Amino acid sequence: MTIAAFCGSLRKHSLNRSVVNHMDQTSDDIQVLSLEDIPLFNADLEEQGEPEAVFDFKKAIKEAEAVLIVTPEYSHSMPGVLKNALDWAGSMTYENVLDGKPVMIAGASPSVLGTAFAQEHLRVTLAACGAHTMPQPEIFIGKAAEKIDKDGKLIDQGTIDFLESALNGFRVYANGINNL
C-alpha cells in the first residue's frame, strides 16, 4: 500500500511535521508530500491548466491507495495552506483525486485538546470532496510540545504506540474501502 502523507503546516519545526516525519521513518509505505509550492486556489489558473505543483500533488494522491493528513489548529480550524491544497485536490475542473479516497487525520498541538476543532472542519471539507475519512480512532495529540523533543523527535512511548496502532488500523480500513 502507498499512503500519501502531508502536513498542514509550512513551519520547518512544526509539531505536526514531526508527527509526519515519525510516521514516515517508521513505515515503508508512506510518501510525504509538500504543500509549499502549491499556489493559492484560483479558477483563472485552472482555466490555463493546472500549475505544475498542483499537478504533481494531485498525481501523488491519485496514485496512492490512501491519504494521511496531519494538521495543526489555527484559530479553531485547519490552516489556510491545508484548505488551499484540498481545494485544488478536490476541484472538479480536472479531476477530484479525493473522491472515494480513504483518509486518516491526525494532529498535534501544545493545547490539551490537540486539534479537535481543526479536525472537525477538515472532516467536513473531506466529506464535500467525497473522501472516506476513517471515523475512529480520532488522533488528537494534546500537549505535544511535551511529547516531541527539541530536535523534532517523538519521544512519548504512549503516543508512538498509539500512532502505530492507528496506522495499522488505517491500513485495514483503507483496504476495505478500496475493495468495495
Automatic annotation (TrEMBL):
Residues 1-145 form the NADPH-dependent FMN reductase-like domain. InterPro entries: Flavoprotein-like_sf, FMN_Rdtase-like_dom, NAD(P)H-dep_reductase. GO terms for cellular component: cytosol. GO terms for molecular function: FMN binding; oxidoreductase activity. Belongs to the azoreductase type 2 family. This is FMN reductase.
